[in-house]
UniProtKB/TrEMBL annotation:
PANTHER family: D-ALANYL-D-ALANINE DIPEPTIDASE
Cofactor requirement: Zn(2+)
Residues that, per the record, bind Zn(2+): 97, 104, 164
Full protein name: D-alanyl-D-alanine dipeptidase
UniProt family annotation: Belongs to the peptidase M15D family.
Alphabetical GO biological process terms: cell wall organization; proteolysis
Reaction catalysed by this enzyme: D-alanyl-D-alanine + H2O = 2 D-alanine
Alphabetized NCBIfam families for the sequence: PRK10178.1 (NF007557)
Organism: Caballeronia grimmiae
One Gene Ontology MF term: D-Ala-D-Ala dipeptidase activity
Top-level taxon of the source organism: Bacteria
Keywords: Cell wall biogenesis/degradation, Dipeptidase, Hydrolase, Metal-binding, Metalloprotease, Protease, Zinc
Active-site residues, Swiss-Prot/TrEMBL: 161 (proton donor/acceptor)
CDD domains in the record: D-Ala-D-Ala_dipeptidase_Aad
Length: 187
């Protein structure tokens, strides 16, 4: 059986900004979950991300990544903190982040500013939904722009989180254990 290959995504190799919030205390748990910031994706997801980067760059934008591969052990930490299947994948089902096929991100303009998406990353509120009614027009426009970039590259989205994109058909892939992640260790 072929072992899943996770590839490193870096600002230098991929022309992205990286701010892995689970390596900091700036996440909804209030504490770091990863010891270091290592952004990893499964090979097909990494190739799709490269397409998304190219699309965003074609109109002067950059992608900023908040999370990518997430070991199942980290998923358990998140579920234990907030067992809400609307925002956290149940442990029995597993997260596509733990398959290396999902990425959480936003768009950054030419001045280095995140586009206003109406809520912060990981805001576990109804307003985080892609098409939440009542958001200002510029927020809807920014979310639709991100959606177009990511769909154009080959990703799909989930309805509840404007920041979350994944490869179609990811559920058929196995979870990748933390042992495969090399440097990505939990606190």
């Amino acid at each position: 059986m072929t072992r899943a290959r996770l590839l490193h995504v870096t600002p230098e190799t991929h022309h992205v900004h990286i701010d892995l919030v689970y390596a900091t205390d700036r996440n909804f748990t209030g504490k770091p979950i990863y010891k270091a910031q290592h952004c990893l994706l499964l090979e097909p997801a990494e190739a799709t991300l490269r397409r998304a980067v190219g699309i965003a760059r074609s109109f002067g934008m950059t992608l900023k990544i908040f999370d990518a591969y997430r070991p199942p052990q980290a998923q358990k930490v998140l579920w234990d903190f907030l067992p809400d299947p609307n925002f956290i994948a149940e442990l029995g089902r597993g997260s596509n982040h733990s398959r290396g096929t999902a990425v959480d991100l936003t768009l950054v303009d030419e001045h280095g500013n995140d586009l206003d998406m109406g809520t912060g990353f990981d805001a576990m509120v109804p307003e985080s939904g892609h098409f939440h009614a009542g958001l200002p027009i510029y927020v809807q426009r920014n979310r639709t722009l991100l959606l177009g970039v990511m769909h154009g590259a080959g990703f799909t989205h989930i309805a509840s989180e404007w920041w979350h994109y994944e490869l179609p058909g990811s559920r058929e892939l196995p979870l990748i254990d933390n042992e495969a992640s090399g440097p990505l260790r939990l606190m």
